[in-house]
Design goal:
2 domains, Immunoglobulin-like, seven-stranded antiparallel β-sheet, alpha/beta, single chain, eight-stranded parallel barrel
Length: about 475
């Protein structure tokens, strides 16, 4: 063979090797890719428990045709609502009932304050039997109006003192639970479940422990669910999940585990990065400026707040038997105009705030009758992830609160069947506005593609993705 022809063959071979080497080095399987990606491991065979949906606190003191309850509740995948009735606002209650009946949503009735006739000058309950009878009559009236009362929570946050002392002590609460059960049963309402104690925090320290320890066996057996609120501290971001975990560990230790309604959560943070947002609990921190839009503005209109609530939701869903209940479904005029509060996921006009858009996108893609699957990811990466699966589908989500992109390599194993990519979306903001403008941040939901690779040796599936700054990522797969 001529020397020139041999040289050409070697040159072509060398060029081919070079090209293959470049392809290999750019691949996530190559040496160059090692360490570039944040690893996320998901064992689809390791489920936490069934996904019970989300709940929402609904202010029934206000009903407007600008709010579409049926669509709103359906978009968020709401399975239970928590309401507090004040006065005879039956028109509002019945309007809400119509939406919840079609969706099979259960109702929790709670109470902000004990009726004045049943307390002393210090605000303490003095008539346990009278309060139990009051609750039974309230349930009787609700059923007369054909309004559900699936659960009743005897008093919201009885561990907080509105006046000189606690409205209820743990030992009185123990007596009240039993007395209320008797009154309900006498009226034929055995199906109405009493839940509680409705504490303001999952912390177990000092007197808080007595709310669980002072229940005798009869009262303990009556309560079907524990209820508790959980909010992160301003100095420690994102602690709602770990705080709830401490309560769950304690309940397991004293053999007192029950399903838990987290009766109220969102985010108490108002500082994200270097930006200070008006507090949703007292939004009038910008002053009465030129426009109503600027005046009516708080952190709840921003993407950073929405991402924190989204991440908190994932943290709460990582525990079996927990149903998170969003603090407030929509803003109500009485809150906005008089109390300067704006916690709602929808504004006064029924328009979605960023937190509604993000949670709605997530909930609409969770498979029916899904099981929750944890995701293993190192905490220093400051990402949050969770997966859901049923017999036919797998869905996973990743939340990135950082101001920088994160490259991830996700490995799914334990499927026991072949896995096919269906679709994925990025939820991100084209521009996060400074608080001083007093305008709601917009969210764009953009379709994205993934390349799913199968490793036959480990029977796992792997893909890489870039999670954009201050965004959420949701991907869906089909089990074949």
């Amino acid at each position: 063979m001529p020397i020139k022809k041999i040289q050409k063959i070697f040159m072509r071979t060398g060029l081919l090797v070079l090209i293959l080497g470049l392809i290999w080095s750019c691949s996530f399987l190559g040496d160059r890719g090692k360490g570039q990606y944040i690893p996320i491991e998901i064992d689809l065979d390791n489920t936490i428990g069934p996904f019970n949906g989300l709940g929402a606190n609904v202010p029934i003191s206000f009903y407007s045709r600008r709010i579409k309850p049926l669509q709103t509740l359906n978009d968020l995948g709401i399975t239970v609502i928590r309401v507090k009735r004040q006065g005879d606002n039956w028109d509002n209650i019945l309007a809400l009932r119509g939406a919840t009946q079609r969706l099979g949503i259960k109702w929790i009735y709670s109470l902000d304050a004990i009726p004045a006739s049943l307390v002393n000058q210090h605000g303490q309950l003095t008539d346990v039997a009278g309060f139990a009878e009051w609750w039974a009559e309230e349930v009787d009236e609700l059923f007369y109006q054909e309004v559900p009362a699936d659960f009743i929570e005897l008093l919201d946050v009885p561990d907080l003192a509105p006046g000189d002392s606690l409205p209820l002590s743990p030992d009185i609460y123990n007596s009240l639970v039993k007395a209320t059960r008797v009154e309900l049963d006498l009226r034929g309402y055995q199906q109405v479940e009493i839940i509680g104690p409705g504490l303001s925090t999952p912390a177990i320290s000092g007197d808080l422990e007595s709310w669980y320890m002072d229940l005798d066996q009869t009262a303990f057996d009556i309560l079907g669910h524990w209820t508790v609120q959980t909010w992160e501290k301003h100095t420690k971001a994102g602690q709602v999940g770990s705080a709830l975990a401490e309560l769950i560990q304690y309940l397991d230790l004293i053999e007192s585990r029950k399903p838990i309604f987290v009766s109220s959560y969102a985010s108490s943070e108002t500082v994200f990065g270097q930006r200070h947002y008006p507090d949703p609990n007292q939004y009038d921190q910008l002053g009465n400026l030129n426009t109503f839009q600027t005046y009516y503005y708080s952190a709840s209109f921003s993407v950073p707040y929405a991402l924190r609530v989204y991440s908190n939701t994932l943290d709460l869903l990582k525990y079996a038997g927990v149903t998170p209940i969003i603090y407030q479904l929509y803003d109500a005029p009485v809150d906005v105009k008089h109390k300067k509060r704006s916690w709602g996921l929808l504004d006064l006009n029924g328009q979605a705030k960023p937190v509604f858009t993000l949670l709605g996108n997530l909930m609409q893609q969770v498979p029916k009758q899904a099981m929750v699957v944890p995701a293993e990811i190192e905490p220093e990466h400051q990402l949050n992830a969770l997966a859901f699966r049923n017999q036919e589908q797998v869905m996973l989500t990743i939340c990135n609160e950082n101001t920088k992109s994160k490259s991830v390599q996700v490995r799914l194993h334990g499927a026991r069947r072949s896995l096919e990519f269906v679709h994925a979306v990025d939820c991100q903001s084209p521009k996060i506005l400074p608080p001083g403008q007093g305008q709601v941040d917009e969210i764009e939901i953009l379709e994205t593609e993934l390349k799913l690779r199968h490793d036959g040796d480990s029977d796992s599936y792997t893909f890489t993705a870039t999670i954009h700054p201050q965004s959420t990522f949701v991907a869906e797969f089909q089990l074949k």
